[in-house]
Write a structure and sequence with these properties.
The complex is a heterodimer of chains A (277) and B (773). Chain A has two domains: 123 residues, Sandwich (Immunoglobulin-like), CATH 2.60.40; 79 residues, Immunoglobulin-like. Chain A has 277 residues and is mainly β. Chain A is globular, with a radius of gyration of 21 Å. Chain A has three helices and 20 strands. Chain B has three domains: 80 residues, Immunoglobulins (Immunoglobulin-like); 114 residues, Ferric Hydroxamate Uptake Protein, Chain A, domain 1 (Beta Complex), CATH 2.170.130; 517 residues, Maltoporin, Chain A (Beta Barrel). By secondary structure, chain B is mostly beta strands. Chain B starts with a helix and ends with a strand. Classes of the chains: A mainly beta (277), B mainly beta (773). Strand 1 of chain A pairs antiparallel with strand 46 of chain B, so a sheet runs across the interface.
Chain lengths: 277, 773
């Protein structure tokens, strides 16, 4: 990604005359799609957002949050999550998780069991159409070590873990400075193909000072979740630079109405390091 | 039914039938420099018989064995020579023509007269000379022969300022670019803004858009045949220039007068010298962020030796690099890429009718990205290396049949996405990459037949083959071109050519990136195939204008696209990212040109349609236009010699906007705890459904000549984008958001979306000082 940024940088900076202006355009017709976003985390309640996509030039009326929600959310659907012979019904309640910042309009306070099983999602929309999906719990991948190295008065953090050669694995690594409320200092997606001996490391530059709090999170991703994140990342990037090729969103939700979104398990480990301690 | 039999008898017993003939053969050269002249006309006066020099300056003409015959040797821009010779027996006649002492040298550019073009079966061919490129206005004053080619009908550029070539519906990777017969795999500097060709070193460029001669193969859409100067074998000279972003110098001269000569030509940019000085002066400033250093350079060299009356040896080479480096406390980053080519060429004249050209070439393109941080390193590279040997034979059977035949073998080595990274202590290491070896073969024969005064037919075929790790492909590529002279001013032409391409460029963007890699045909990746038919006419308007009008249709098979969000970066399973389909392209080209007199130039218009489809998993197999599907393309080029001192030039281009793939919808993605909230995730619809606004631009150039006591100097002033048109380079949809606070969490909501156009170049004046002595 750094190379890509550098190419864009050269393109713009060396030419030295990046000129930008607004132009009127008419986009081809677009039929809005239902969007699902739901993460299953063992021991946590199930929150699901069922919303609509918009035409690109649609604008929101911000006179009230209620108006925005009315325009965006798909209400009155029947939503349930099934696993084994059990099921959890999600109620149509708008809920805002103050800790994670996740807005949901379907919720169950019943906790996700700590089982290695496949979870099925079934949504019956008010118009009678159905959306389905499934995801399977995968194990956490522990950190091998988190190493702090110093150069003069500055430190860097090296995060080591070991990939299993037995299966195809996908990872996402977050690194936050101070707290999870901030934008990630690093947010990397990675496949397991680039390791010869199984050891993978994520590193930073010598940019941290004594007393800094570093929060490392390593997500072990199901393939469909990894593909979804890649497609989201590239779609956003393709709209901003001329190098990235656009493409469709790789969703793992299916239905007659061409829905979008992700229904996935979350499997991660997290560690906090204070520089100098 | 008797005619074929008669023709066979004619071919077999030609020596008997022409027992009373002699052959005049030799080479035609420039008297001042010794450079061979390509396409010079040798006419047997009064007999309606003649020939032209081939690409090696050689000609062979059969005449009656008479005491005396009259020949006229001519070449546009040179004084014609009339001479009477004794023709009782075969004669070696090497001639040197003197350039005309007129002030229009800079704009007298054509290497083939209109009459000769009417006579030839060749169609869909454009010729450019370095002189032509030098006087036209250029971006930042950098003379670029590829951008001059883009002004010809049927050839369009990619994005703004790009040196990419899109010919008759072909992609940028479907052009065979050869420099002194060696393939150039990436003919770009600075991500395509400049080409690798230094105009000072170039003698001649010929572009084939269709009707490909049998000697060419390996790419679907065009052949760009670039020939380097040989070096002045009469006197030493130096040519050079100082421009805004680069300087260049060419030295040439005889090693042994009339027998051998050399030319060395170099060019280098110097933006990095300025940025490095700025970085040094701010070394102690902790708030200063170092500016990355970028430069490119290229070097051409050639020597040639006349080894006798019948042999000539040439050695030439090219080496060019782009270098980008960035160093700060955390990074030691280096990114370099470039081409290298080498050519050893031997011309031998077996007898007055048989001439051969044997060539050994080496081509290499590579890029390397390396980065080093304390304790860790990263190194990614890709490379393609070719060793090619070929022999071409040119046999003037008689004045009605000229045979060309040859054989060629190319050994390819591909290093694809070789990655090595890890820690210095070895605890972390990862590597990727593949190596392929492939061998490409070609065997061809063609006959240019004068069937009557009005009808000429060039027919032949190329037999090509490719092997790679046990997988083999064989291809028969028929070629044919016919010319029917409807009057002494009008020629109707028709051609058909099948082309096969065995190596493919893996590029997922519309830009010419140095990280694009070449990939061979394999068991899963079939050779690309194109069949093109073209029909057209040429009409000589008065004595000074030539009008050409051609129509073409091209069938494209085994085309390659990439699946959505393909991972082309150091991917060991690259083929999984490929999708295969087909396509078609058709269009019309109109050209009007004037190449003699004080006012010269040309006008070219192209109407084109392109579609590709049938790709598994892409738009349900439906057909879509590629981004370079430019419906209308107009170029107007004018050069006017005001006086001995001043020449004014101008170009105007108009093209339908490029095709864009824009998002139609959007949605909000909250993501997991600790992630960056995404208020706008674009949802893309079908590929390439939106056409950007049209592109148009006018450039102006003024050449002011100075005539000091010795040598020649000029100032070339260019104004790029004269009327400051904001042409679209890239369009994106920009969302303005407002934040709503919910508890202690801020939520961004898009409130206004706007389409924004990014333009690269406003009006850009530049000046270049050129000298020659």
């Amino acid at each position: 990604m750094r190379t890509r940024k550098l190419l864009v940088f050269i393109l713009i900076v060396l030419v030295g005359c990046n000129l930008e202006n607004e132009v009127p355009i008419n986009l081809p017709a677009y039929e809005t799609q239902v969007v699902v976003e739901c993460y299953l985390e063992a021991g946590k309640p199930i929150r699901l957002l069922l919303a609509r996509s918009n035409r690109f030039f649609d604008e929101f009326d911000l006179s009230s949050l209620e108006t925005v929600l009315d325009e965006s959310l798909v209400q009155d659907a029947a939503v349930r999550v099934l696993f084994g012979s059990d099921e959890i019904i999600l109620n149509n309640d708008i809920n805002f998780d103050q800790q994670t910042g996740f807005l949901a309009n379907y919720l169950s306070w019943e906790r996700v069991p700590e089982i290695s099983d496949t979870f099925h999602l079934e949504i019956l929309l008010p118009d009678g159409s159905e959306i389905t999906s499934q995801t399977t719990m995968i194990p956490q991948i522990p950190f091998d070590s988190i190493v702090v190295e110093y150069q003069d008065s500055l430190a860097r953090v090296l995060t080591y873990f070991t990939d299993s050669f037995d299966e195809e694995n996908f990872y996402r690594r977050h690194l936050h400075r101070t707290s999870l409320d901030s934008i990630p200092y690093q947010d990397f997606l990675a496949e397991d193909t680039f390791t010869d001996n199984g050891t993978i490391v994520f590193g930073t530059g010598f940019e941290f000072e004594e007393g800094d709090t570093i929060i490392n999170t390593l997500y072990h991703l199901p393939k469909e979740y990894y593909d979804y994140l890649v497609s989201v990342t590239f779609s956003i990037q393709a709209n901003l630079d001329p190098i990235t090729q656009p493409g469709s969103i790789f969703s793992n939700v299916q239905g007659d109405t061409n829905p979008l979104g992700i229904f996935t398990v979350l499997s991660y480990v997290r560690d906090t390091t204070v520089i100098g301690e | 039914m008797r005619r074929p039999f008669t023709l066979v008898v004619h071919l077999v017993f030609h020596s008997i039938l022409f027992a009373q003939t002699s052959t005049v053969s030799g080479t035609i050269r420039d008297a001042t420099s010794g450079e061979q002249l390509i396409g010079a006309s040798v006419e047997w006066v009064g007999q309606n018989s003649g020939t032209t020099t081939n690409e090696y300056g050689f000609y062979s003409l059969q005449v009656a064995s008479l005491d005396s015959i009259s020949l006229r040797i001519s070449y546009i821009g040179y004084k014609a020579v009339d001479l009477a010779i004794l023709a009782r027996e075969d004669q070696q006649l090497d001639l040197a023509l003197t350039p005309m002492e007129i002030n229009l040298q800079e704009v007298l550019v054509s290497s083939d007269s209109y009459r000769e073009r009417l006579r030839s079966t060749e169609m869909s061919v454009e010729g450019i000379s370095a002189r032509e490129a030098k006087v036209l206005p250029a971006l930042l004053g950098e003379v670029d022969i590829i951008k001059t080619i883009q002004l010809k009908p049927g050839i369009s550029s990619g994005s703004e300022g790009s040196s990419g070539l899109y010919v008759r519906g072909g992609g940028a990777d479907q052009n065979l670019i050869i420099l002194d017969e060696a393939i150039v795999y990436n003919a770009n500097h600075l991500f395509g803004f400049f080409s690798t060709f230094n105009a000072d070193a170039i003698k001649d460029v010929k572009v084939y858009k269709g009707g490909f001669p049998s000697q060419y193969g390996g790419r679907l859409s065009s052949v760009i045949d670039v020939k380097l100067n040989e070096g002045n074998n009469q006197r030493f000279s130096a040519t050079g220039g100082l421009g805004l972003i680069s300087s260049r110098l060419t030295l040439e001269g005889p090693i042994n007068k009339d027998k051998s000569s050399f030319i060395v030509s170099g060019r280098r940019t110097y933006v990095d010298l300025i940025t490095n000085a700025v970085n040094r002066s701010n070394r102690d400033n902790p708030d200063f962020s170092p500016i990355p250093a970028y430069s490119f350079y290229d070097l051409n060299a050639k020597i040639n030796f006349k080894l006798g009356d019948r042999d000539h040896l040439y050695l030439s080479g090219y080496f060019g690099r782009d270098v980008f480096a960035f160093t700060d406390d955390n990074f030691d980053f280096d990114f370099n890429w470039g081409n290298g080519t080498g050519t050893v060429r031997w011309n031998h004249q077996f007898n007055p009718r048989l001439f051969s050209n044997t060539t050994l070439t080496y081509s290499q393109y590579h890029y390397r990205i390396s980065n080093r941080v304390t304790g860790f390193s990263f190194d990614l590279s890709s490379e393609i290396r070719d060793i090619n040997i070929k022999s071409d034979f040119y046999y003037a059977l008689n004045n009605r049949h000229t045979l060309r035949m040859g054989v060629q073998a190319t050994s390819h080595q591909f290093d694809v996405g070789r990655l090595k990274a890890g820690s210095d202590d070895g605890t972390v290491s990862f590597s990727a990459g593949q190596r392929y070896d492939g061998t490409e073969f070609g065997l061809y024969i063609s006959d240019e037949a004068v069937l009557s005064d009005k009808l000429r037919l060039t027919s032949g075929f190329r037999l090509s083959a490719f092997t790679n790790e046990g997988e083999s492909y064989l291809g028969l590529e028929p070629r044919a071109a016919a010319r029917l002279l409807l009057s002494d001013r009008t020629a109707l032409k028709l051609s058909y050519a099948r082309m096969k391409q065995y190596v493919h460029l893996v590029s997922n963007s519309g830009l010419a990136l140095p990280t694009d890699i070449w990939y061979p045909s394999t068991e899963n990746v079939k050779p690309q195939v194109a069949d093109q038919i073209a029909i057209g006419y040429s009409y000589l308007v008065g004595q000074q204008f030539l009008l050409t009008n051609e129509y073409y249709y091209k069938f494209l098979n085994h085309q390659i696209e990439f699946k959505d969000h393909a991972n082309l970066f150091a991917n060991d399973n690259l083929e999984e990212e490929f999708r295969f389909g087909d396509g078609y392209a058709y269009g019309m080209e109109l050209g009007l040109e004037k190449k003699e007199g004080r006012f010269t130039g040309w006008l070219g218009y192209t109407l084109a349609f392109i579609r590709k489809g049938g790709f598994d998993g892409i738009q349900n197999g439906g057909y879509f236009p590629p981004t370079y599907d430019r419906r209308h393309d107009l170029s107007v080029v004018a050069m006017f010699q005001l006086s001995r001192k001043f020449t004014v030039t101008s170009t105007f281009v108009y093209g339908s906007g490029d095709i864009g793939w824009l998002p139609l919808g959007r949605y909000i993605f909250q993501d997991v705890e600790g992630s960056e909230f995404q208020p706008v995730v674009p949802v893309y619809g079908d590929r390439n459904t939106f056409r950007l606004p049209p592109y148009h631009r006018m450039d102006l150039g003024v050449v002011i000549n100075f005539f000091p006591k010795w040598g020649h100097q000029d100032l070339t002033i260019s104004v790029y984008n004269l009327y400051d048109r904001r042409n679209p380079y890239f369009l994106f949809l920009d969302a303005e958001t407002e934040t709503i606070r919910q508890g202690n969490i801020d939520i961004e909501i898009p409130t206004r979306i706007a389409a924004k156009q990014v333009s690269l170049f406003p009006v850009l004046p530049s000046v270049t000082w050129n000298f020659k002595f």
